[in-house]
Write a structure and sequence with these properties.
Blueprint lengths: L4 E9 L5 E10 L4 E5 L6 H9 L6 E6 L2 E2 L10 E4 L11 H12 L6 H11 L14 H13 L5 E5 L7 H18 L2 E6 L2 H7 L2 E6 L2 E6 L1 H6 L4 H6 L6 E8 L7 E3 L4 E3 L6 H5 L7 E6 L4 E3 L9 E13 L4 E6 L30 H11 L11 H11 L6 E5 L10 E7 L4 E3 L5 E3 L11
Parallel strand pairs: 3-8, 3-9, 6-7, 7-8
Antiparallel strand pairs: 1-2, 1-4, 4-5, 9-10, 11-12, 11-14, 12-13, 14-20, 15-19, 16-17, 16-19, 17-18, 20-21
GO molecular function, one term: ATP hydrolysis activity
Pfam families: ABC_tran, TOBE_2
Organism: Streptomyces paradoxus
């Protein structure tokens, strides 16, 4: 048996503190694997605990299979939770740990058949007589998963179950979790701050920032069509290149996006997305280019839709199967100051609220507050520049992914081609304006 889980305008706040979850609405279909993704402290574990019944819901509704469940005790929700710290009883063997909830639910029933079947599924038959202190981290996590699976619950709730393990073991257990949940067909909600886990495991990914849902979609759509600059920057390795740009759209000339010392000339005739950028004439925007949207090639080799720029090699990262080249193009990076923080930093609003504004202005400001504040502030260049300097971790302003056979060295001037088909443009508040939200391209093409 599996179940549908729905959250409608759910909010949560702790005494004398800010709201950690703000009017979150989310529907999880029976058998779906949904990943809650976001930086540490963004409220994703709190959402999981509210679904489990370990935290009270201050506002909104939780529906389980369409029935109101806010007041239902944890024991009545038929869910199994896997914790980050394993939560095994140290004085019990693995067999006893897996069978403990079965003995509680059905005291007169022998749990051994279900324990043995679960152990075979996880490949831990030889660990059943060992204590947790005699197991490695990966073995303990398998036992913790076995305790959840043996109950045959209607939903799995996993709270960063792999974060305490080394990278190689995480990759192995990630594949096991994917296989097991697919075979069992049980609704699963998985919390993580690791976007690689989210992209590889989830049927859908829900991205949270400051307790507010930013986007929920398939992993491919979240990567290819991020709703705002926070989602674009949080998803993808290496992180997307974000550059400050200025739209220039003269009536008698070509439309360009200035990047400081260089510019992107938009080919004519303009596609509809680029035509819609005319309304940004003279405004500063954020240009997003993933590392695969730029290639190293002579300008004469440009394909349709590619425009030339040049870059100065600042640093080369050898990755084995590829290299990441850091270029200085003379552009100014756009900073996402709260990318790794749980919620927006206080006292740094990007929009100035005016009490004498129109009703439409006030409504716009109010709707903006529902996104947990502006993601990027381009209205304060001095502050953004100082933040960028303090937070600078990598040289250059543009990272390009290429093959390892290129011989590049520091200081080389290199011709680059930008594929405008993979160009993102965000407004000053971080919302995507290109590709236009109402005209999403077909990802199947």
């Amino acid at each position: 048996m599996t179940r549908a889980i729905s959250l409608h305008d759910v909010s949560k706040a702790y005494p004398r503190g800010p709201r950690v979850v703000e009017r979150l609405s989310l529907d999880v279909s029976p058998g779906e694997f949904l990943v809650l993704l976001g930086p540490s402290g963004c409220g994703k574990s709190t959402v999981l605990r509210m679904i489990a019944g370990l935290e009270e819901i201050d506002e909104g509704q939780l529906l389980l299979d369409g029935e109101y469940a806010n007041d239902l005790p944890p024991s009545g929700r038929d869910m199994a939770m896997v914790f980050q710290n394993f939560a095994l009883y140290p004085n019990m063997t693995s067999r006893a740990n897996i069978g403990f909830p079965l003995r509680i639910e059905a005291p007169g029933t022998d749990p051994r058949p279900r324990v043995d079947a679960t152990a075979r599924m996880l490949g831990i038959e030889d660990l059943l007589d060992r204590l947790p202190g005699q197991l490695s981290g990966g073995e303990r996590q398998r036992v913790a998963m076995g305790r959840a699976i043996a109950r045959h619950p209607s939903a799995f709730l996993m709270d960063e179950p792999l974060s305490n393990l080394d990278a190689k073991l995480r990759t192995h257990l990630r594949a096991e979790i994917s296989r097991l949940t697919r075979e069992l067909g049980v609704t699963t909600i998985y919390v993580t701050h690791d976007q690689a886990e989210a992209m590889s495991l989830g049927d859908r990914v829900a991205v949270l920032r400051g307790g507010v849902l930013q986007q929920v979609d398939s992993p491919r759509a979240v990567y290819a069509l991020p709703r705002n600059v926070f989602v674009a920057a949080f998803i993808g390795t290496p992180r997307i290149n974000l550059l400050r740009g200025l739209v220039r759209a003269p009536l008698d000339g070509a439309m360009t996006i200035s990047l400081g010392k260089q510019f992107l000339r938009l080919p004519e005739p303009l596609c509809l997305d680029h035509q819609l950028l005319r309304v940004q004439q003279g405004r500063e925007v954020i240009v997003g280019l993933r590392s695969e949207a730029v290639r190293i090639a002579k300008h004469s080799a440009a394909r349709p839709g590619e425009v030339p720029i040049t870059g100065l090699v600042e640093h080369v990262e050898f990755q084995g199967h590829e290299i990441l080249v850091h270029f200085d193009t003379g552009s100014s990076p756009a900073v996402v100051p709260d990318l790794e923080a749980p919620r927006p930093r206080p006292g740094r609003p990007a929009r100035r609220r005016r009490r004498d504004g129109s009703a439409l202005t006030r409504l716009r400001e109010r709707s903006g507050a529902g996104r947990a504040g502006p993601v990027v502030a381009l209205d304060h260049p001095e502050e953004t520049r100082s933040t960028a300097t303090a937070d600078a971790r990598l040289p250059g302003d543009l990272i390009v992914r290429t093959t390892p056979d290129l011989a590049l060295r520091h200081g080389m001037q290199v011709p680059l081609l930008v594929d405008l088909a993979h160009l993102f443009v965000f407004d000053q508040h971080g919302d995507r304006i290109c590709p236009h939200p109402d005209r999403l391209p077909d990802l199947g093409e």
